Amino acid sequence: MRPTGPLHLGNYHGALANWVRLQAEYECFFFVADWHALTSDYENPAPIRGYTREILLDWLAAGIDPEASTLFIQSHLPEHAELYLLLGMITPVPWLERNPTYKEQIEQLQNRDLSTYGFLGYPVLQAADIILYKPFGVPVGVDQAPHVEITREIARRFNFLYGPVFPEPQVILTQTPKLLGTDRRKMSKSYGNAIFLNDPPEAVAAKVATMITDPQRMRRSDPGNPEVCNVFDFHKLYSPPEVVAEVDRKCRTAGIGCVECKKLMAGHLNAFLEPMRARRRGYESEPQRLERIIAAGNEKARRVAQATLEEVRRAVGLR
Predict the structure, then answer these.
(1) What class is the 199-280 domain?
(2) Where in the chain is CATH 1.10.240.10?
(3) How many CB atoms lie within 10 A of CB 124?
(4) Closest to 234 (Cα-Cα) out of 293, 281, 180, 164
(5) How far apart are the C-alpha atoms of 235 and 239, rounded to whole Å?
């Protein structure tokens, strides 16, 4: 993940919850992509270090187990940069220009100058990040599948030119539940509509109180339609099934008002987040523990990365 801010519920359901499950099935490598943050935020790099720590704490709080998974920081391993350089020598520019995310962000982030080599070439760095560890697969949402496909193409081209070194990673699709921000747009810190994993209970309650509900329900006595209500989508994720059924029935018959419905959901959401808050407090109280986890993860990742790079150098003819 790129360290561009603290993680919110959209990040949790979009990726992190799946990571927690996958670590029981696979040997997993999770890293903070701080070099990637520079591709779009190169003019303001100061917050990256702090956000790196925040993301690591969010991961651990959510249930990533440092005994089962490898956690590390991208920029601490220059092996990523060396493989990025070598892959850049063989990657055709049209492959990068057709990247749908590249086109989309150029259009959406018009307040930033993204006409840089680093931004155009970030899929190559991403490919290096992935294939350096010769993985079976990469867990992504369906919208991120094209990124893995570019990685597969780059690995295939390297193998064609220099011999079989890299397996082509598979896409491990993540099923993401419907979860919008408090204003019904995509949840994003840049939109100001996000509920963060480290928000205290009172902040969660305040944000939930502002959530948009059924736009057709103007008065407390009006029956509502939970199928178009964002708060009800949250209920389905965080409230017990019997509460969900009761809210559905009462909303349709005007038996519950939106204010009461929001307070009820906020309570269940806070109950869901409380174990994460407790784990986070434990790690925050022992800052040296976090440092030890990262040092151990960096070292384990480095051993794997160095072994792969030695193969790459020999294949290319640099040894």
Answers:
(1) mainly alpha
(2) 199-280
(3) 23
(4) 180
(5) 5
Average pLDDT score over residue span 67-92: 98
Report the C-alpha gap between 188 and 9 in whole angstroms: 10
| Owner of token pair 């939930």 | 208
Answer whether CATH 3.40.50.620 is correct for domain 9-179+287-316: yes
| Residue matched to tokens 């944000």 | 207
Give the alpha-carbon dihedral of 197, 140, 234, 249, to 10 degrees: -160
DSSP single-letter state for residue 2: -
Residue 155, amino acid: A
pLDDT digits 0-9 by tens, 34-68: 999 999 889 999 999 999 999 999 999 999 999 99
Q: What is the pLDDT of residues 2-19, one digit of tens each?
A: 999 999 999 999 899 999
Burial (0-12, 13-18, 19+ Cβ within 10 Å), 77: buried
- The secondary structure of residue 143, as a DSSP letter, is G
Q: What does the pLDDT look like over 163-183, one tens digit per residue?
A: 999 999 999 987 777 789 999
Q: Which residues pair with 8 in a beta bridge?
A: 196
Q: Which residue, among 246, 254, 245, has the nearest Cα to 225 in the 3D structure?
A: 254
Q: What is the pLDDT of residue 113?
A: 83
Residues of the chain with CATH 3.40.50.620: 9-179+287-316
pTM beyond cutoff 0.90: yes
SS3 137: strand
Higher-scoring residue by pLDDT: 115, 23: 23
Other beta carbons within 10 angstroms of residue 64's beta carbon come to 19
Picking from 115, 282, 276, the residue whose alpha carbon sits closest to that of residue 197 is 276
Q: What is the largest CA-CA distance in the chain?
A: 78
End-to-end CA distance of the chain: 33
In order of 126, 157, 194, 282, the CA distances from 87 in angstroms are 10, 9, 37, 41
